[in-house]
Amino acid sequence: MQDNYRREIDYLRVSVTDRCNLRCFYCMPEAGVELKGCNDILRYEELYKIIKATTELGVSKVRLTGGEPLVRKGLIDFIRDIKKLGIEDLAMTTNGTLLAKYANDLAKAGLDRVNISLDTLQAKKFDEISRTNHSLSQVILGIKEAQKANLNPVKLNVVLIKGVNDDEIEDIAKLTLDNRIIVRFIELMPLGESYNWAEKKYISIDEIQEELNQINNLIPAEIDQGNGPAKYYRFSKAKGKIGFISPISDHYCSECNRVRLTADGFLKPCLHANNEFNIKEVLRTGVNDKELKRIITDVILNKPEKGLGIESVSDFNINQRKMSQIGG
């Protein structure tokens, strides 16, 4: 279906949990966020009901996020159930630490592909960023197992942070030379934990493209599957591709095709705006399917034209939720 600005809304991002086994410093506090109780989080049957309603309204692409989705018990069976709804593209974003264990089962259940958050290739720095002792080698193994399970294209999401991983841009990009993966560089957004310091640590996509062009000319490229705003390129003769996502320097509100469902039951039409609808409350009053679809339609129709104040990195001043609480 379309919103009031004639954007086709066909993509739903679903956070299945607010829990995560990492504590990445730009995402959540070192002590973690205050976790919701079991009754505060949407049950699988509630998630199923919402997803079913959105697919009947035209959503064909669903991404499962967290927190870290793989820490929630029963996820494999849930994936199997919602895939039967006819979802064309069922994907998941994960930190990769548990992926080696579950990759094969995820694929068998119907998951189509995965995005893996990976901000460094250095083991010590990985521990510093994640503030845990989870091994980088676990994530690397998870990438390999995802490829074996044909959860392709495997995409690596790299959040750019000045003074943290800008010295690794070339090394990370060169992963695409010999591997059929997609590396995506993402501008740092001032959300939650990064709100007060993002401007100082911000790196624009233009800077990264210029750096990589000096190494090996980037050639425009396309990918078979993709729901988002990334612009894709590749190095000459490379097996993989490189994507660039620029929510700050070149925001893409006019092309946004998504809504988000938080783990605690809020339907959020825009990541960078305050408005969100408590759909959990409605579900638990016994709303019927017809009324549920009407409510979801109203939320989509009220999707703002753009996130409030989205003009530059210093203009984000409206959303203090941690990214883990919204859904990655």
UniProtKB/TrEMBL annotation:
It is an enzyme of class 4 (lyase). SMART domains: Elp3. GO terms for biological process: Mo-molybdopterin cofactor biosynthetic process. Residues 4-230 form the Radical SAM core domain. S-adenosyl-L-methionine binds at residues 26, 67, 117, 189. Its cofactor is [4Fe-4S] cluster. The keyword Ribosomal protein does not apply. It catalyses: GTP + AH2 + S-adenosyl-L-methionine = (8S)-3',8-cyclo-7,8-dihydroguanosine 5'-triphosphate + 5'-deoxyadenosine + L-methionine + A + H(+). The keyword GTP-binding applies. It comes from the Bacteria. InterPro entries: Aldolase_TIM, Elp3/MiaA/NifB-like_rSAM, MoaA, MoaA-like, MoaA_NifB_PqqE_Fe-S-bd_CS, MoaA_twitch, MoCo_biosynth_MoaA/MoaC, rSAM. GTP binds at residues 13, 63, 93, 155, 258-260. [4Fe-4S] cluster 2 binds at residues 253, 256, 270. Keywords: 4Fe-4S, GTP-binding, Iron, Iron-sulfur, Lyase, Metal-binding, Molybdenum cofactor biosynthesis, Nucleotide-binding, S-adenosyl-L-methionine. GO terms for molecular function: 4 iron, 4 sulfur cluster binding; cyclic pyranopterin monophosphate synthase activity; GTP 3',8'-cyclase activity; GTP binding; metal ion binding; S-adenosyl-L-methionine binding. Belongs to the radical SAM superfamily. MoaA family. Monomer and homodimer. Catalyzes the cyclization of GTP to (8S)-3',8-cyclo-7,8-dihydroguanosine 5'-triphosphate. This is GTP 3',8-cyclase. It comes from Selenihalanaerobacter shriftii. The gene is moaA.
